[in-house]
Amino acid sequence: MASSCRLAHSSFSFSVKTHQKPFQRQTPVVKLSPRNYPGTSFLKLGNLLHGRAQPCLSHKKRAQNIQAVSIPVPPSTMNDAEYRRKLSESYGFTQIGEPLTDDITLRDIIETFPKKVFEIDDVKAWKTILISITSYTLGIFMIAKSPWYLLPLAWAWTGTAVTGFFVIGHDCAHKSFSRNKLVEDIIGTLAFLPLIYPYEPWRFKHDRHHAKTNMLAEDTAWCPISKEKFDSAPAFRKAIVYGYGPFRTWMSIAHWLLWHFDLKKFRPNEVKRVQISLACVFAFVAIGWPLIIWKTGLVGWIKFWLMPWLGYHFWMSTFTMVHHTAPHIPFKSSDEWDAAQAQLNGTVHCNYPRWIEILCHDINVHIPHHISPRIPSYNLRAAHKSLQENWGKHLNEATWNWRLMKTIMTVCHVYSEEENYVSFDEVAPDESQPITFLKKVMPDFT
């Protein structure tokens, strides 16, 4: 029987509730509180939770099927290894990291990296370009030659290959591709053109993401929606529910449109470079699209450009939300935010099938990149190995699985100071049919 969990912070209690409408209470099956267990802290309650409240988080080994639920995570409880293990199993992680102590700074972590991970290697850098050009060319050939029933496979390959161009531009934007900065700007601009991404606007906004990772209302990558904003937009509530739910793996399209083409979003000293990037993108569209349509027709434009582009945005959205979104990862206001906690504890390493990692140049090895964006993509694995040796117990790690995606898409919606996230079907049950549908149809296995 599926169940949902809620830790009430005010009474330090844990309740297990059966199916019910949101906010309706039933007699708790299990109740743990300091009154019932004198002297019991949250850390000990975490152990009791997993010892006695098994209807909530226990699982049958053979079935390997756990219903993803959002559980408020008190900081003291997160220091308990067994509690984190159970949470990681419930959310689809292989490990949820132990919180850092307040005396650890980002500089302390950076200084543990071997110096070689920061070294730019021109041969390795140009090898990434060769891999992307070759894999993209192969993808176009596959699209041209595949029968209709194999086209989805060809599009999946080509969309993943073109994501490699984005990662190359991403390295250029962080000045970790070449020692020649003009070369970096040229390569970055060209790499982004097939994606219709303006290089400089993206670079400026992405720098802000690194400076304010998981900072509430300041991070430009992927923030939870506030309850106030959700309630203030009745005309768009359904669109928001769909965007953060079923269409979340393509929400980067909305981000692309809203953040990168409006000159008013940039500082005066940035506008000139933004205009140059926009001119390059518009020139590519004005010349490239008509050529594609002239040679292959409108159907050819859909086959050769649009479908791989949608494949790229699938990975852009998926990588971004997996890197920084989970029920236990908090977003903090600027006065509470800590750089080391956000970049090490608030970033996720996720393993994908190796062919995806090769075509996308290890962008999934993301924690070292957030510790220092100066590390080139081809050195991320060595840097991650260093993190595992020196800070391994603090890392969030996963291997991509359906439970992980289901947790993100059905739980991580509206910001809650107490719980990090509240799902739409709790906040607006009458408008959350897409979320209810996802909970029913999405697989839940790791």
From TrEMBL:
The keyword Isomerase does not apply. Pfam families: FA_desaturase. Keywords: Membrane, Transmembrane, Transmembrane helix. GO terms for molecular function: oxidoreductase activity. InterPro entries: FA_desaturase_dom, Fatty_acid_desaturase. The chain crosses the membrane at residues 125-144, 150-170, 273-292, 298-315. Residues 147-395 form the Fatty acid desaturase domain. One of its GO terms (biological process) is lipid metabolic process. Belongs to the fatty acid desaturase type 1 family. This is Fatty acid desaturase domain-containing protein. It comes from Papaver nudicaule. The lineage of its organism: Eukaryota, Viridiplantae, Streptophyta, Embryophyta, Tracheophyta.
